[in-house]
Amino acid sequence: MTACGAALLGGFVTLYARGASALPAQALRPPGALDEETFLGACVRCGLCVRDCPYDTLALARLGEPVATGTPYFVARQVPCEMCEDIPCVKACPTGALDPELTDIDDARMGVAVLIDQQTCLNFLGLRCDVCYRVCPLIDEAISLELDHNKRTGMHTRFLPTVDADACTGCGKCEAACVLEVAAIKVLPTALAKGQLGSHYRLGWEEKEKAGESLIKGIIDLPDRMPNGGGVR
Amino acid sequence: MTAASLTHADVRTRWRWKWLLLRRTSQLAILALFLLGPWAGIWIVKGNLSSSLTLGVLPLTDPFLLLQVLASGHLPEATALVGVGIIVAFYLLVGGRVFCGWVCPVNLVTDGAAWLRDRLGLRARARPSRSTRYWLLAALLAASALTGMAVWEWVNPVSMLHRGLIFGFGFAWLVLLAVFLFDLLVTSRGWCSHVCPMGATYSLLGAASLLRVRADRRADCDDCMECFRVCPEPQVIQPALKGMEQGIGPVITGINCTNCGRCIDVCDQDVFRFGTRFHNTMEAS
After folding, report:
1. What is the ipTM, given to two decimal places?
2. Which of A132, B83, B90, B175 could potentially form a cystine with B59 if both were Cys, beta carbons 3.0 to 4.6 Å apart?
3. Is B180 exposed, middle or buried (0-12, 13-18, 19+ CB in 10 A)?
4. B68 contacts in A (CB within 8 Å)?
């Protein structure tokens, strides 16, 4: 009976733990954190990463907060990761829940910045705010400004902040710095922010470059129907 | 008034608090070491009882935490393994559950409940088996293996209290209140002596630990029952104290003994003392 009771209690705890382990989109893990499922087994909630964070970015989740109790996280809009070159939080982790293989902070993937609201972003409105672009530690790599014709005025250029997800570390400095009441650019968990190509997809232009020529020879060139009544070419 | 009770009253003028006070000092001093950093900016110890770093060189990691991590399928870095090694070696020397009696902050909560329970004269409502903790320990490690998560850490009152004091409570105090009320109203010494799987892990270390309480002068026992009344695990006293006729030696070998030394404090006949687990022979008493 004791064994059954203990097993039942263990079962309840497990169910509770599973229910209380979903990570909200605003909560980001420290640099080098293993994927969330592994992290929840590897992290002992000791807070040594929190202690060694020189910017007080990290905190341990308290019971009642929507992050697994005792695990380290940060909210980019409040205090972003300053991307220390020596990565003290990872060095402090005794269990490797923050992966010591991460030695170059530019390789960290805490999430992906997404310019999520083009209707309020000042640059999209045609102004030159540029703040997210200027604060980006990987300026011109993770965030660059793409030029675009301003159709509203008909005579200006819009400088559109554009994130390269392959370079973005998810540090959140852009989200923290966004001048709006509510940030137009937000760091999202990678799984939420990213699509995924079918594993069998091949990009024709890349394959062509690799092969040095078109893979299909003598392809028939069909006429292109141009938009807006442009006729057939 | 009988002669026997008169003798008792006389002897009770002796001081009965030595080990209890030492134990409270140890509990509070260790807590203070952890709090000195966040409260006063003096960083001698960083982290918490789950894993810590002292003076930047000494890593310590809790064995039950590490077992959960291992069960979840993650092989931790060397720091955590070294930390557990040091802890295991230490408690093999001083007694596994010395952690429970001399370090763990939840002991202050449950001792408080036991004291109040005694004062109010409350009777036990339920008597779960003392082996519950071992089954729970096994169930939780199995659950960690199945889910890949350190599942006990979502409810563990030991980590919650200690982490709460150092990093902030949130609603963790509710868990501690539940433990207090469980001990007060449901089962005497309910949490620490029946349920806690962390303590159970330390108990298993106690199976081989060196430092033990010994009832070397058990022949002098006058059956006043004081030791049984104050002991959080009274079942461990019985064989050592009363096993003379069955040929059982005077060493308290029960793995659940916390080496709290309260029996030494309260015994008017000075039956108990701290010693080693060796020379557990009939001649020793």
Report:
1. 0.88
2. B83
3. buried
4. 41
